[in-house]
Amino acid sequence: MKTIQTLFALCFVSLLAGCAGTDFKRPEPGALTVGKSTSAEVASVMGPPLQTGELLKNNQKVQTTRYGYAEGAGTGRYAGVTPARAMTFSTFQNLLVGQEFVSSFATDATDYDETKLPLIIKGKSTRADVVSILGKPNGEVIYPLIKNPGETGIIYSYSHVKGTIFNMTFYSKALTISFDNNNVVTDIDYTSTGQK
What residue stretch is flagged as signal peptide (predicted)? Predict the structure, then answer.
């Protein structure tokens, strides 16, 4: 989801301006459920967001609520990386349709090995296969954030920023894998920008 990429850049620029956001607590598993939780429940669990907005996905307007935090003195996943974490909640018709957590902190980094993508085969690989290959996902989505109603999707994503405001480089990669009702892969969507 490209909204996380934007939020990461925002966190870093905010850090340089002296406002690094509020370090938020990632919700416990099951506290918010895609396809069941409401916008009000997201606000109740997470508190005031850093940013809100909307995006158009599959011809539907989706509302986004974003939380972000960057720490200049923290330890990044890689040398030279300013550690940051962000979480985006997406709602459609007041229902949670996506949640994604991304971190470049060494302690909870969400980096994954995209070179293993050829091992995942549409129409054959299952959700269990994907998790075995790539590890635990850091997000989940349903329609309209994925193409087909009734399907589910998982997200693997990672972003980081290096340098200073005068010499900033940005790296991001995002993978969304969709599954049918039998948990078989129906779609693989991968993008990356920048250099690691």
Answer: 1-17
Encode pLDDT of 153-185 as tens digits. 999 999 988 877 678 788 999 999 999 999 999
Instruction: Break the chain into its structural domains and give their ranges.
Output: 2-193
Token reading at 23: 């370090």
Say if residue 27 is preceded by a cis peptide, omega within 30 of 0: no
* pTM passes above 0.85: yes
Q: How far is CA 160 from the centre of its chain?
A: 12
Nearest CA to 4 out of 80, 84, 79, 66 is that of: 66
Q: How far apart are CA 117 and CA 134, in angstroms?
A: 8
Q: Which two tokens stand for residue 142?
A: 């349903």
pLDDT in tens, 59-76: 999 999 999 888 777 788
Q: Token digits for 13?
A: 């620029």
Cα distance between residue 140 and residue 16, in whole Å:
31
DSSP track, 72-112: TTS-BSSTTEE-EEEEEEEEETTEEEEEEEEE-BTTT----
Three-state secondary-structure class, residue 175: strand
